[in-house]
Design brief:
binds the ligand N[C@@H](CCC(=O)OP(=O)(O)O)C(=O)O, 8-stranded mixed sheet, binds adenosine-5'-diphosphate, Carbamate kinase, 5-stranded mixed sheet, alpha/beta, globular, 15 helices, about 15% strand, kinase, Archaeosine Trna-guanine Transglycosylase, Chain: A, domain 4
Length: about 375
């Protein structure tokens, strides 16, 4: 199974964490970046396409600015990222040049991928770079992001890039051998889990934070990323990026790290984008009848099942669908604005035109635009 997944992966997203690039040293570990470049060169020589999602800008910038520990404020973090990002990309440029390879920098915000046109544009750029034999190196555009438009962590970003690029495998390189049954910092006897068929709530509880001055999210965000990739039908392999030749060994068949298998019933690319890339701008609370109908795959959300509207949004926006007890059931793109839904909620679809004076369709969310969570 593992060999089959790795052999079939022609296009791979490799996420490299700050803990790998900086380790415990201050600034970037250039020797390690050199080793990684050699490994990527070998993967490419074997006919694979590689897209890198790299952290490390803040870690590199901290050193330049002489900041010890985590940057104290958001502007300090953004300043560190601005200075660190150019150092980071230069380090990759130099390391890849040794193997006659070129890299390109791509900085993204969540807004870029949430906008369908920008998403498709970014996709076309990625394809073109790969056609030119260039390795794209992606990071969050830390300098300009604020809460609403940020990915927040690069684990999450790497899962979304996997979708963007339609890659067949996500590799997460971190500073630990893989996913353990408990956080090894507090449970030294915890065992490594080599194969995860499906991410359970118990595993999510076993995932701890980063606990370092440079990492963001720790195992929590890595599990979330593996889950997202899995919903897109893509496996995630988590490896220790600080181990020399770890990629080469893993692709040669060694049973290293943790492999998260993809889900069998995976979402298509557009539905994955609705569920994970778009930021919901409102909420529809539905009744028990609608909850039951939605749970049966393939049904649209009709006005009759909606009991409350929260937030202000236009037609076409992404909203959460929640049950009366607050459980999030689904997400989808609405066919009507919040003001229109306020008027037609609780009514039969046949009454929409009489109430509004016009009608876009029978559904508040058509099943093609609806994703169950
Ligand atoms: N169950 C777990 N298994 C493995 N590592 C865990 C677990 N829970 C928490 N961690 C921590 O997650 C850290 C890696 O995440 P992070 O510091 O964000 O690194 P990165 O910079 O690679 O994203 C590990 O060093 C480890 O201390
Ligand atoms: N964009 C930030 C990285 C944020 C992040 O998620 O870090 P990490 O947990 O080390 O992957 C940077 O370049 O410093």
């Amino acid at each position: 199974m593992r060999a089959q997944i790795l052999n079939k992966a022609k296009r791979i997203v490799i996420k490299i964490g700050s803990r790998v690039l900086a380790g415990d040293v201050n600034g970037l570990d250039r020797e390690l970046i050199g080793r990684l470049a050699a490994e990527v060169a070998a993967l490419r020589a074997a006919g694979r396409e590689v897209i890198i999602v790299s952290s490390g800008a803040v870690a590199a910038g901290r050193k330049e600015l002489g900041i010890a520990g985590r940057p104290k404020s958001i502007p300090q973090k953004q300043a560190a990222a601005a200075i660190g990002q150019s150092h980071l990309i230069r380090a990759y440029e130099e390391a890849f040049a040794v193997f006659g390879l070129r890299v390109a920098q791509i900085l993204l915000t969540r807004d870029d991928l949430a906008n369908r046109r920008r998403f498709l544009n970014a996709r076309a750029t990625l394809d073109t770079l790969l056609d030119f034999g260039v390795t794209p190196i992606i990071n969050e555009n830390d300098t300009v992001v604020f809460e609403e438009i940020k990915f927040g962590d690069n684990d999450n970003l790497s899962a979304l890039v996997t979708n963007l690029a339609e890659a067949q495998l996500l590799v997460i390189l971190t500073d630990i051998d893989g996913f353990y049954e408990a956080d090894p910092r507090t449970n030294p006897d915890a065992r490594l889990i080599h194969l995860v068929k499906s991410i359970t709530r118990e595993m999510e509880r076993a995932a701890g934070g980063s606990g370092s001055a440079v990492g963001t999210g720790g195992m929590v965000t890595k599990l979330a990323a593996a889950k997202k990739a899995g919903q897109f039908g893509v496996a995630t392999l988590m490896l220790n990026g600080r181990c020399p030749a770890v990629l080469t060994a893993a692709f040669a068949g060694e049973d290293l790290g943790t492999l998260f298998l993809p889900e069998e019933a995976s979402l298509n690319r557009r539905k994955h984008w609705i569920a994970h890339t778009l930021k919901p701008s409102g909420k529809l609370v539905v009744d028990e009848g609608a909850r039951t109908v939605l749970a049966r795959q393939g049904k649209s959300l009709l006005p009759s099942g909606v009991v409350r509207v929260e937030g202000k949004f236009d037609r076409g926006a992404c909203v959460r669908i929640v049950a009366a007890d607050g459980t999030e059931l689904a997400r989808g793109l609405v066919g009507y604005s919040h003001a229109e839904i306020e008027l037609i909620r609780g009514h039969r679809s046949g009454e929409i035109e009489a109430i509004l004076g016009y009608k876009y369709g029978d559904e508040i969310i058509h099943r093609d635009n609806l994703v169950l969570l």
